[in-house]
Amino acid sequence: MIIILGKEVEPQGSEIRRIREFLENFPGVNIRIVEFQGETRTVREMHLIGPTHNIPEEVVKAMNGVEQVVRVSTKYRQIGRHDVNFVPVGFEYNGIKFDQEGLHVFAGPCAVDTPENVEATFKFLQSIGLQTARMGAYKPRTSPYDFQGHGRECLPWVFELAGKYGIKAIAMEVLREQHIDEIREELEKAGNPTGIILQIGTRNAQNFELLKQVGSQQEMPVLYKRGMGLTIEESLNACEYIASGGNRNIVFCLRGVKSQLGAPHRNLVDFAHVPVIHRLTRLPVCIDPSHSVGSKEHAPNGLLDIFHVAAQGVISGANMILVECHPEPESAWCDGHQSLTFQELEKFMQDVELVQDAYRRRVEAFSRGMVKDLTRE
Ligand code: PEP
Ligand code: MN
What we know:
Blueprint: E1 2-5, H1 14-23, E2 30-37, E3 42-49, H2 57-61, E4 66-70, E5 91-93, E6 96-98, E7 104-108, H3 115-127, E8 132-134, H4 155-164, E9 169-173, H5 177-189, E10 195-200, H6 208-215, E11 222-225, H7 232-244, E12 250-254, H8 274-280, E13 285-287, H9 289-293, H10 305-314, E14 320-324, H11 342-367
Parallel strand pairs: 7-14, 8-9, 9-10, 10-11, 11-12, 12-13, 13-14
Antiparallel strand pairs: 1-3, 1-4, 2-3, 5-6
Helix pairs in contact: 3-4, 6-7, 10-11
Bound molecules: phosphoenolpyruvate and manganese (II) ion.
Residues 110, 291, 324, 334-335 line the site of manganese (II) ion.
């Protein structure tokens, strides 16, 4: 059960105390106060966990300070929408707003390789107005003989260079708890010149201990990637571990699922699930066209498959894109075959803008019930 509190209710206020006193009549029910920043106000909720079936909803609803009472199933109770008109949530990190409305492109190499390449990337991103990047220092590789990432050693210069070129957030994968500590320590040592979004890769989508670890800290948001062989239901339940640990600053990422039916793409593209995640959860949704497609093949019209699938996500309202690029893809240490050149990235950005505009026009026209308005003026 979730009790949504009125905006006048203070954390130490008498309303919460009285509700708590009432709930003491129901043994075994644990209460957790959850707070998050909505667009116009701080939203406070009481999350009741345990045997809540005997709690009379109507009585709680009538209590002072209660705005709404929602019975939720045990499934993804914190990240879920539960068919209720919750205040739309999102979060802000390092000056960047993440919600179900906006769109941010995180571009960069699969893995950090040389300082020269990292600097060239940040410099280029800045030149096209991007403040968000992707790059891995810890790489989970299919073969033990492949480059595993520089690890902690590269963090000081990556962070310094990010600061130099105004990069506000980098999506960076972590594979175990120690990596979270290393990133936190190195960020602090460098004077926090940039921000990090902790990425949970598809291979760790059900590593519940790691999910609890990224969930038990609140300094850095989490980008959770759908498991490559998991249903949406399984992935959302796993993602809930992050929120249940206390961190609700989560973005859910679609990156394709493993199936021979996806061939010749690396994975079967699942961006049709963008609106599904919007409907089922309160989370912003990311798409990863690079790992979905896995090549730089193009259609007869010249547009890369990566562009086409990204467009499929954006036309459905995706809020973030993770895309691989490299100053010299052919010499990249990881995933060069699917990395865009800078020139391609620039075109990609223009294409995304076109499609985003089309998405907005679709939504607007639909809301006015005037689909004919979609025709060009
Ligand atoms: C990545 O984004 O660097 C990555 C390894 O992706 P995934 O976990 O989706 O394979
Ligand atoms: Mn990669």
